[in-house]
Structures are given as C-alpha cells and as structure tokens.
Write a structure and sequence with these properties.
The radius of gyration is 37 Å and the shape is elongated. It has 9 helices and no strands. The chain is mainly alpha-helical. The chain has a domain at about 60-185. About 85% of the residues lie in helices and about 0% in strands.
C-alpha cells in the first residue's frame, strides 16, 4: 500500500537519478569540448575506462545513457504494477510497451551511429580522391584516414548497442518474466472462468427448482392420477 511519504521518497529518488544523469552528461560534453579537464593517476582504471569511452563511443554515450536510465525506470514501474493485487491491465501493458520501446531504441542507436560513423569515415578517407591520388597515397594511408574518420566509432557503437539490447531483454526476463506469464495466463483464463461460474449458478438454480414446486400443483396432479374412471351407466347418462 502506497502512502504520500512513499510517493514523495520515490519522486525524490527519481529526481536525484535524473539530476545525476544530466550532470554526468553535461560534464561529459564539457570534457569533450575541452571546457572541463579531469585529472587522475596514469595507471588509474578510471582513466583507462575514460580513454576507451572517448575513443569508441564519443557522443553516442549520451543517447545510450538516457535510454538506459529510462529503461530502468520503466522496468521498475512494470514490476510494481505486476506486484499489485489485482494488477492493473492497462498499466502493465503500458509499462511493458515502454520497456520494449527502450530496448528497440538502444538497438537503434547502435545501428544509427554505425551508419553515421561509416559515412563520415568514408567521406574523410575517400573524399576528393581519384584513382591516381589513391594509388599514390597507398592502402595504409587510406586505412589510417578511415580510422581517423570514425570507422572504429561505428563498429564500437554496433557492439554496445547489440550487447546492451540483449542484456535489456535478459534483464526483463529475469525480473518480470514469470510474473508476466502468470498475468497473461490469468487474463486469458478470466473470461472462461466467468462463464464457468455463471453455468454453475444456473445449474444450482435448476437443481433447487423441483424442491420449491407449489403444493397445489402437486395435489392437483395426485387428484387427476387417483380419480376413478367413469362407469358404463354414467357414460350413457
């Protein structure tokens, strides 16, 4: 049972998560632009992670992070809706749709950023070149220009989008999979159970009908059954 204090705490926690996410995104954009510089020891794992994210994700980290936070919020709401007795069918279906939409968006960001990275890499590597200039530059130089143009970024976002999307599906199956199966099974069996209950009530009413028959009707049936047959003289008269 939810109370105003519980709702207030949930709202505060959600606001804190959103504020922390926006602050992290703002700091990330500022660091990419050179406005903000983070210092850490050379052998720090955090610095290694930062270099990997910078070289492989760049700005694609922003939509990935926003979608991941929205997905977590939707799946938590879905689990809470399934935990209510009785469950609100509209709320369950709405939150499940949001969970599936965020999973598809995570896949989509990986695919879209792949196309963007491949396009920019090809434009930078092959833009303004003809057969003679490409032959004079050599394959290694063209490959270096492809890497500098963002081909690694496109491949990395494909991997992150695919792995993250499948992890989202796995998390949904582990968190609410059994509850969703039970919910939809109950929804499927609900009309049939109502029909069965109505038939049972009708059967009970029909079973009680002979016991409540009026006495006058039964005595009249006995009178007609025991009345003597008319004699020959009575028939001639």
């Amino acid at each position: 049972m939810t109370t105003p204090i519980t709702n207030m705490l949930k709202g505060m926690a959600l606001g804190a998560i959103c504020a922390a996410t926006l602050a992290a995104i703002g700091g990330y954009i500022a660091s990419l632009s050179g406005w903000l510089v983070f210092t850490a020891p050379v052998d720090s794992p955090l610095l290694s992670l930062w270099y990997w994210v910078y070289n492989n994700l760049r700005l694609s980290l922003i939509p990935f992070s926003l979608i991941a936070v929205a997905y977590l919020h939707a799946i938590i709401q879905l689990k809470q809706a399934l935990g209510k007795i009785p469950s609100d069918a509209n709320a369950v279906q709405r939150y499940e749709q949001w969970v599936d939409v965020h999973t598809s968006l995570f896949f989509g960001v990986g695919v879209i950023w792949t196309a963007i990275g491949m396009r920019s890499a090809l434009l930078q590597a092959l833009g303004g070149l003809d057969a003679e200039s490409a032959a004079s530059m050599g394959a290694f130089t063209i490959l270096q220009r492809l890497i500098d143009g963002g081909v690694l970024l496109s491949l990395s976002t494909t991997i992150v989008g695919g792995v993250g999307g499948y992890l989202m599906r796995l998390l949904k199956s582990q968190m609410v999979g059994r509850q969703l199966n039970t919910f939809y099974q109950n929804q499927f069996e609900s009309p049939y159970s109502q029909i069965t209950d109505q038939l049972k009530r009708i059967e009970q009413l029909l079973a009680q009908q002979p016991a409540t028959m009026p006495v006058s009707a039964s005595t009249s049936q006995e009178h007609y059954a025991t009345a003597p047959a008319p004699t020959t003289e009575e028939q001639s008269q």
